[in-house]
Amino acid sequence: MTERRPDEDYLPTEENEERAINLWDALGFDNGDEYTPDEMLDIINAKINHGELKLEEIKAALELIGD
Question: 6, 14, 17, 31: most buried, per Cβ within 10 A?
């Protein structure tokens, strides 16, 4: 298992931000313009943790966007 770097060392790239936005859209969430890509990922993670979003839905969305 790879270790995640601390947030202060993490610099999002344009490509990663675009992936987060595409995932958000593929999952059918609205109001994407109200959130940063990091906030989008935080919301997606929270929905997974609370059982509101299943891993299968994430996989399907990733396939849809070709990631």
Answer: 17
Q: Is the pLDDT of residue 7 over 60?
A: no
Taking the C-alpha atoms of residue 55 and residue 52, their distance in angstroms, rounded to an integer, is: 10
- 47-62 confidence digits (pLDDT tens): 999 999 998 999 999 9
Question: How far is the C-alpha of 19 from the C-alpha of 23, rounded, in Å?
Answer: 6
Contacts of 56 (CB under 8 A, 6+ apart): none
For residues 52 and 4, give the distance between their C-alpha atoms in angstroms, rounded to a whole number. 24
